[in-house]
């Protein structure tokens, strides 16, 4: 028990524990900002997250199965959220896929309006990053990208769309390289949510 990450004495001499506690604090800020926006429009946080995801991602990702993986919650929970949003007229169901039992989600005009009001919920967090030196920001981003990929490889994070797991990504001795863009990638070029992401076989 003394070795718990959340024991302040354990944190004193362990930088990894300090980082994890820091990430937990930031996740709390994320939840607070999301809740504040959700209350303003009369929706739950997960409903806001679904709407924002659908607004900015391709249609084949906007179905119950993928959304459950994306947000690490059960399909029934996603289905319940969609049912409420459908009744409110902020999403519509598209049954045009080959399997007519499944459907994807589209925003209605009312849903797009809500996204316009809520998609900036994390801006206060982004604003705090402006005071950090660019080199430090780039180092932080590099570490986060690699951590996200490792968590996915370990089965803890179910979905990732970062370059490291993409079929177009190649690591050379001197640089990272994207075969789709046909160019080397700087650390700042690495994407965490790439629209062109295709999972690498065996990744």
Task: Name the assembly state.
Answer: single chain
CATH third-level topology of the largest domain: Arc Repressor Mutant, subunit A
Large-scale geometry: globular
Number of helices: 8
User: Under the CATH scheme, which class of the largest domain?
Assistant: Mainly Alpha
Q: Please tell me the CATH architecture of the largest domain by its name.
A: Orthogonal Bundle
By DSSP, the count of extended strands is 5
What is the terminal separation in angstroms?
Answer: 35 Å
Task: Explain how this protein is built.
The structure is a single chain. The longest helix is centred in the first third of the chain and has 27 residues, at 15-41. This protein has two domains: 28-123, Arc Repressor Mutant, subunit A, CATH 1.10.10; 141-189, no CATH class. The two termini are 35 Å apart. The model has no long low-confidence stretch (mean pLDDT 91). The chain is globular. It is built from eight helices and five strands, in the order αααααββαααβββ. 50% of the residues lie in helices and 8% in strands. The strands form two sheets. It has a three-stranded antiparallel β-sheet with strand order 3-4-5, with no helix packed on it. The protein has a two-stranded antiparallel ribbon with strand order 1-2. A hairpin with a 4-residue loop joins strand 4 and strand 5 (183-185). With 203 residues, it is mainly α. InterPro entries: HTH_MarR-typ, WH-like_DNA-bd_sf, WH_DNA-bd_sf. Residues 16-149 form the HTH marR-type domain.
Using brief descriptors, characterize the structure shown.
203 residues, 5 strands, three-stranded antiparallel beta sheet, 2 domains, globular, mainly alpha, 8 helices, Arc Repressor Mutant, subunit A
């Amino acid at each position: 028990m003394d070795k718990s990450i959340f024991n302040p004495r354990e944190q004193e001499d362990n930088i990894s524990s300090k980082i994890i506690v820091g990430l937990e604090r930031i996740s709390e800020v994320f939840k607070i900002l999301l809740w504040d926006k959700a209350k303003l429009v009369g929706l739950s946080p997960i409903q806001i997250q679904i709407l924002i995801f659908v607004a900015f991602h391709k249609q084949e990702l906007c179905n119950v199965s993928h959304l459950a993986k994306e947000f690490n919650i059960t399909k029934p929970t996603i289905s319940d959220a969609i049912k409420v949003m459908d009744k409110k007229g902020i999403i519509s169901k598209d049954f045009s896929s080959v399997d007519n039992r499944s459907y994807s989600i589209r925003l209605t005009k009312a849903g797009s309006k809500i996204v316009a009001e809520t998609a900036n919920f994390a801006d206060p967090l982004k604003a705090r990053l402006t005071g950090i030196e660019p080199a430090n920001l780039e180092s932080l981003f590099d570490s986060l990208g690699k951590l996200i990929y490792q968590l996915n490889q370990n089965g803890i994070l179910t979905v990732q769309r970062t370059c490291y797991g993409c079929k177009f990504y190649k690591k050379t001795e001197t640089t990272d390289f994207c075969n789709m863009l046909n160019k080397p990638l700087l650390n700042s070029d690495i994407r965490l949510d790439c629209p062109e992401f295709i999972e690498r076989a065996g990744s």
